Amino acid sequence: MSEPLAMTDAQIPPPAVPGIIQQLMSKLSLPYQMVLDNPNIDAAQRVQAMLLDDQVGALLVLFPQSHLLDLAALNELTGRKLNPVRQERLDRMLGKHKLDGLPGLPPLTSSPCIYEEGLLTPPTVLIDSGHKGVLLEMPTPNFKSLLSKASSARFAVPLAQIQPNLDRPDDDREEITQAVQNFTARRIRQRLEETLEIPPLAETAQKIIKLRVDPDATVEDITGVVETDPALAAQVVSWAASPYYAAPGKIRSVEDAIVRVLGFDLVINLALGLALGKSLSLPKDGPQKGIPYWDQAIYTAAVIEGLTRAIPRPQRPEAGLSYLAGLLHNFGYLVLAHVFPPHFSLICRHMEANPHVPHNVLEQHLLGISREQMGGWLMRFWDMPEEIATALRFQHDPSYRGAHHAYANLVCLATRLLHQRGIGGDSQEPIPAELYQALNIEPDKALEAVNKVMDAEVALRELISQFHQSGG
């Protein structure tokens, strides 16, 4: 990805409503005001537009951003098998009119439209203009006039009714069991571990875990373990030789990679992350526009590496464990695909249909549990360090201050900073000042850490490509 050219304030074009939308509103004689998007806007006023299709054709669906689009409810209501249109098709449609996103304006498309009943409750509505960050504000009666040929129904779920379990880890086992029971439609009497059919921890990973907790472990020990796994050995050597680390000279062996470039701590955690990541196969039917698993893992680990260095040494958590927490932070995604294979596609389609909804809220609605619960539980089942289980389990709770909170807080901060750059998600969750304080990180230092990763984006992507080439 090429580095964007810096623009001065004078060069940055002012926010504007796209020409085709201006023409449409003028033709319809509908007055509106241009409003800049901001986090304080009431989600109940925001019109979320989603284009779905099936063999019958396309359907424009409108609902408030305070709700989740329930595809099962909509399909039962319409008697159809609707899913979000393929991203390539949507991009072509929007590209013709130079739009960044789909405005919730039925006259803009030739498709029939259905809208959630509660959409017309607020006195005014805000509609995406088609340019990112620019909204159209209009009185609800004016907007209603655009829906004369649309039908209304109830098919969306208020987000306020869906409460993911963020802070009750003691309930995880029971909730996971309940979710499995719900989906298998039979009484499960076996122990949870047998029910989930999780594969045993890979032998290589078991050996690495033993080395992690051995204070006398040496470079020779980790070299020996890595070299017994040819794919892992090749990965470690290619990492050390990548432009991201800019090592002088040719890397000739695993030991050379460890001693000269990567270091014992990084290699042992990188090797463990790779071994665990390959214990469960990557799902083939992920959400469209979703960032690939290893891309997300390595970006997050790289940012956490920089954030950890920005923490004053006396308060600094263990660098290797912090890096590993970043590498494994989305491991629950793999577990979810493994445990609920028939329903993973359903989860992905709902993620596509609800880009405004965090994944843990969607998973809570569909399964009764989240990937964070699954990932944290499995880390404990595999006897991974408690710091890692905690990081996975509490990564979406910026107020978590329990045992090992620094690891969970680091993942939370790193993922939110990356989301602001459009990596790993479009949601723009706020970063509370208390989160920086809990980690003893100055906001400008955190920004520096992200900028450093983004400045090295070309080299980092080359590093990531090695995972995809090796089938990771």
TrEMBL record:
Location of the HDOD domain: 198-398
Gene Ontology MF, one: aminoacyl-tRNA deacylase activity
InterPro entries recorded: HDOD, RNase_Y/CdgJ, UCP036888_HDGYP-like, YbaK/aa-tRNA-synt-asso_dom_sf, YbaK/aa-tRNA-synth-assoc-dom
PANTHER family: PTHR33525, RIBONUCLEASE Y
Protein known as: HD-like signal output (HDOD) domain, no enzymatic activity
Lineage: Bacteria, Pseudomonadati, Pseudomonadota, Gammaproteobacteria, Pseudomonadales
